[in-house]
Amino acid sequence: IIGRALPDARDGLKPVHRRILYAMHELGLTSKVAYKKSARIVGDVIGKYHPHGDNAVYDALVRMAQDFSMRLELVDGQGNFGSIDGDNAAAMRYTEAR
Questions:
Q1: Residues of the chain falling short of pLDDT 70
Q2: Domain count of the chain?
Q3: Second label for 29, Cα 20 to 30 Å away, from 35, 48, 76, 83?
């Protein structure tokens, strides 16, 4: 169980979620600045903090931007981030986040 990516008891975030939020903080992405392409965010996360596939990181980013997936939206997304009916999100080159 030690080596698994289980949610932390303190905040409920998995390591990939925490790494995405930290990378977005390092990029200066707050609610008051312009959106950046999701591919840029995913690239920074993979390059610096999370050396795994880009699909896993992008799926975690999409989930944090969906108002129906999590209790609170942690990422402000712009573009097609999927729907509650099961529609998939658009490719990361078409979506933006902050």
A1: 1-3
A2: 1
A3: 83
CB 45 within 8 A of CB 5: no
Q: How far apart are CA 98 and CA 36, in angstroms?
A: 6
- The catalytic residue positions are 94
The boundaries of the domain holding residue 63 are: 15-97
CA gap 78, 70 in Å, rounded:
17
CA gap 42, 50 in Å, rounded: 9
Where are any strands of DSSP class E within the chain? Answer: 36-37, 77-78, 96-97
Report the C-alpha gap between 80 and 86 in whole angstroms. 12
The reported pTM is 0.90
